[in-house]
Specification:
mainly alpha; 8 helices
């Protein structure tokens, strides 16, 4: 679910924070980071639960704490790294991780319930929703170049 996360996170960020000058490249990095961790750990043959460490609330909270401790207040670096932490939280929200409590609240023990509402058609619809938001925003080479160079849509 690539476009679902990116499109919905950008629209939700703009609606909630009303910050149109934010460098959205950092938000996008944060949004896809849990899936990059998941894919990387699966390639290294970690067990299913450990490979989803990026999808835990613990990871999201530690990423925020890390930014708050190791960056200086009122700097561009802190602002950009906060976007990464916000992106991780958005990923958890838009992945409906509260339905998989054994993953979200890792290392706490929860019963593994099969609450999966996702099937291929649901995933396809989610991707289309993300694309419906992104296509009008990135419908020219100049807009795509501006996103990659400046982080602004």
């Amino acid at each position: 679910m690539f476009f679902w996360h990116i499109g919905l996170s950008i629209s939700f960020f703009r609606y909630v924070f009303k910050d149109f000058s934010a460098d959205l490249r950092f938000l996008i990095i944060g949004v896809i980071m849990p899936d990059i961790i998941y894919i990387s750990l699966n390639l290294m043959n970690f067990s299913e639960l450990y490979s989803q460490i990026g999808h835990t609330l613990l990871f999201a909270i530690f990423s925020l704490i890390f930014v708050m401790i190791f960056t200086k207040r009122n700097t561009k670096l802190r602002r950009n790294f906060l976007l990464i932490a916000i992106g991780v939280f958005f990923h958890l929200l838009f992945d409906f991780m509260w339905l998989r409590q054994e993953v979200l609240f890792f290392p706490l023990q929860f019963e593994d319930k099969d609450t999966s509402i996702f099937n291929p058609s649901t995933l396809f619809i989610q991707e289309v929703i993300g694309l419906v938001y992104l296509i009008p925003k990135l419908n020219s080479k100049e807009k795509i170049k501006r996103l990659f160079n400046e982080g602004i849509i």
